[in-house]
């Protein structure tokens, strides 16, 4: 059995026993409308903007942002430590993180190790725990991403970022604990060099990789986790043990956002670079039919699913399953999302109608931390904190 079915089976059993599954999964609703501009019970707030100056030394770049977010970052990391000690009561795992992980900081590619050091210094948190925070996203992200082209040839790229599966259920608030604690850390970042924007991103304070971003006028990029037996757990373990020929997924996406100068260059890098973990890279450009889902194993590209207007493919939509395979029935976000896209039609696609789709349960679920909407041609990135009121699927 692959990693995801086993994990979701366990989650479903726990949810059923604890009363989380209020309906037979998946809990679905009719396609929502009129949710944009965001308001109401699924809207938790706007996301603040910060600037990171790439001309500064890597250890200094994040200091201002972290100075404002260090309390929220400390609360989250303490919660993660509490979860770890609940499984390992002797606290040996925390001691290993605090003493052994910092010895590996020099193995991270430049500038990521130095930036993580700077974040640890600015937050006052142990270096190993900040490293652990940056590793989490290689193995725990569950998302929905879409690239769509309207009738005029304009491209839209959007995503829900879902995170926190298995990371502590809060009975009082009927939600995942880590998901709740991540929302105060969501930030929009304008990465600048020589006073000019290089790329923009929606990210988490303290996290130096990128999961969601846009290079103005050129391309947009999101990353979704791809579950596999040969998955991120294996890649991270190999890296710890000394095999380091693979690239961290989120470090690759940031490097592509920072350095690639075209849609085609970005597609090549995302397709051919060896990875620590399998992934889906969802890439959008600035010309008609520049949109694709790149399905990756750790070693090779398995498939590139592209926009193809002649054959009726005006959007590509990815959750966490290969697009040529059926999703698990208890984790089927894909079909409800695609139903809403078809109902909207290419004629009516916009920020508002895509936000409606991403607001429809179970595309919106208890793990959803934020929604980001991007338009490369308009040089526009909007991000919103999200919450899923009951009844709502746990994932």
TrEMBL record:
Chain ranges of the Acid ceramidase N-terminal domain: 46-107
Pathway: Sphingolipid metabolism; Lipid metabolism; sphingolipid metabolism
EC primary class: hydrolase
Domain Choloylglycine hydrolase/NAAA C-terminal: residue ranges: 143-326
Subcellular location: Lysosome; Secreted
Catalysis: reaction(s): an N-acylsphing-4-enine + H2O = sphing-4-enine + a fatty acid
One CC-aspect GO term: membrane
InterPro entries noted in UniProt: Acid_ceramidase-like, Acid_ceramidase_N, CBAH/NAAA_C
Membrane-spanning residues: none
Active-site feature positions: 143
GO molecular function, one term: N-acylsphingosine amidohydrolase activity
Pfam families associated with the record: CBAH (PF02275), NAAA-beta (PF15508)
Extent of the signal sequence: 1-21
Enzyme Commission number: 3.5.1.23
Similarity comment text for this entry: Belongs to the acid ceramidase family.
Name listed for the protein in its UniProt record: Acid ceramidase
Alphabetical UniProt keywords: Disulfide bond, Glycoprotein, Hydrolase, Lipid metabolism, Lysosome, Secreted, Signal, Sphingolipid metabolism
GO biological process: one example: sphingolipid metabolic process
